[in-house]
Amino acid sequence: MAQQIELTNATVKYAAGQPRDTQYGQRINVLVTLPDGTEQRLWGNPDDATLTALSRGQTVQLAKDAKGFKLVAQADTPQHTNGSRKTWEGWTAEEKRAIALKIDNHADLLGYCLKTAREKLGDYCETSEDVRSLAITLYLSALKH
């Protein structure tokens, strides 16, 4: 049976704090508020740049599957409004983390699209290029929503 993925936006209520000892070792968490008002914790390792880059009030996109919620993409990232282009060295540490987070989230989403295209549509493809094209179509479609 096909696994259903539901995308939703959420707002960060509390950013990641100090690592806690859990049954899975040292972990951090971020508390987000879903559109229906319920709250959900997103857990990760202390070195998880994705979670540590999030700040209070930030809007994030989550994917919900049978296992729970996972951070998919950051809906708002710092933008440079002065029109000047910066080199990587010119970015602040926070901006670099936000960019790295966005790239990481997009890579996760593209990986999921590739896996889904292979599993669900692979029988209709003659080459790996066909699978890749379908995955890119799924990826772009997901980004629009």
Task: Explain this structure.
The protein is an alpha+beta fold. The protein has a single domain (6-75, 92-144), classed as Beta Barrel (OB fold (Dihydrolipoamide Acetyltransferase, E2P)). Helices cover 34% and strands 28% of the residues. The chain is built from 3 helices and 6 strands, in the order E-E-E-E-H-E-E-H-H. The protein has helices at residues 49-52, 93-121, 128-144, and strands at 6-14, 20-22, 25-33, 39-44, 59-65, 68-74. Strands 1, 2, 3, 4, 5 and 6 form a 6-stranded antiparallel beta sheet that branches. Strand 5 and strand 6 form a beta hairpin. The protein is globular, with a radius of gyration of 17 Å. The protein starts with 5 loop residues before the first strand and ends with a helix.
The CATH topology turns out to be OB fold (Dihydrolipoamide Acetyltransferase, E2P)
Supply the CATH class: Mainly Beta
What is the number of independent domains?
1
The CATH superfamily turns out to be: Nucleic acid-binding proteins
- C-alpha Rg (nearest Å): 17 Å
Q: Approximately how much helix is present in the residues?
A: 25-40%
* Residue-averaged pLDDT: 82
Overall 3D form: globular
> Can you write the helix and strand succession as a string?
EEEEHEEHH
Structural topology:
Layout: E1 6-14, E2 20-22, E3 25-33, E4 39-44, H1 49-52, E5 59-65, E6 68-74, H2 93-121, H3 128-144
Helix pairs in contact: 2-3
List keywords for this structure.
six-stranded antiparallel sheet, 145 residues, OB fold (Dihydrolipoamide Acetyltransferase, E2P), single chain, 6 strands, alpha+beta, 34% helix
